[in-house]
Amino acid sequence: MEKQSGTRLGFIGLGKMGASMAKNLIARGFSLAVNDISEDRLAELASIGAAVARDSRELASCPVIILCLPGNNQVREILTGGNGLLPLLNPGQTVLDMSTTTVSFAREMHALFAAKGVRLLDAPISGGLGGARDGTLTIMAGGERDTFDRALPYFSAMGKNILYMGGPGCGQLTKAVNNVLYNISMAALAEVVPIAIASGLDPKQITEVINSSTGRSFCSEFFLPRILRREFTGAYAMGSAYKDMINLGEIALYEAIPAPVIEAATLTYKTALRKGYGDQDKSAMMLLFEDLLNVKLAEK
């Protein structure tokens, strides 16, 4: 991509994903002003040319503001809290919310922004730390088509698969659907594989069979080898996965849609969270069934 020039963009949220995304914007020539609670992350971005905003409200004059925050509470605080950005924004400005929030929250924010004439896209991301680092994220956007088209140069600096999914909330809905399928796959592995081991199968061999046969999935190929090595950190946290389950489960609840598989898998996530595994990878839910059956999916 050619180097870009123009007005400075605002970027709020320099976590594991956000920091890499901001770096890619700078690498593509965009001028950035960044805000985060971490002084180390701010210093890191400043060292490659970003301006530092100590208060998110300092970014209110930026024509485009990008958010990459953990969830509903953080986004609400930044946008509509006591010192929120929304009252300071003017018609014609654009906010690209690349956080993961619930669909209902995204639609609530769209309504508030529309009342002020401020453009908003809910544009969550998928692709993990590698995708954020390499600029190959999948970006799923919901909102007005015209706003999406205007945002493409920014999205293209951070992602490879950039999709307009429909109106307000459709970006978050798309991510929830994809992640719930992934999460259910992990819940099934966590339950079934310990049963196989408790019934006499070798942990390494059953892993090889699953990952070379019809039972394989992206989830099994990614997580089972890590579990064999007893690695339960560094991938996708249990707490984040639970947010996805709640997101889609909330829709099923309010629309009176039977969702027995989602409900059953959510129960496993709840139990794992209560056991204190929220900061570990979602694969740590296998520890529940290993403990129950007194087995381990581990290399001998």
TrEMBL record:
**Molecular function terms from GO:** 3-hydroxyisobutyrate dehydrogenase activity; NAD binding; NADP binding
Q: Tell me the GO BP annotations in alphabetical order.
A: organic acid catabolic process
Q: Where is the active site?
A: 175
Enumerate the spans annotated as 3-hydroxyisobutyrate dehydrogenase-like NAD-binding domain.
169-286
Q: What is its EC number?
A: 1.1.1.31
Q: What is its EC class?
A: oxidoreductase
The question of whether Nucleotide-binding is a record keyword is answered with no
Q: Which family does it belong to?
A: Belongs to the HIBADH-related family.
Q: What is this protein called?
A: 3-hydroxyisobutyrate dehydrogenase
Q: Which organism is it from?
A: uncultured delta proteobacterium
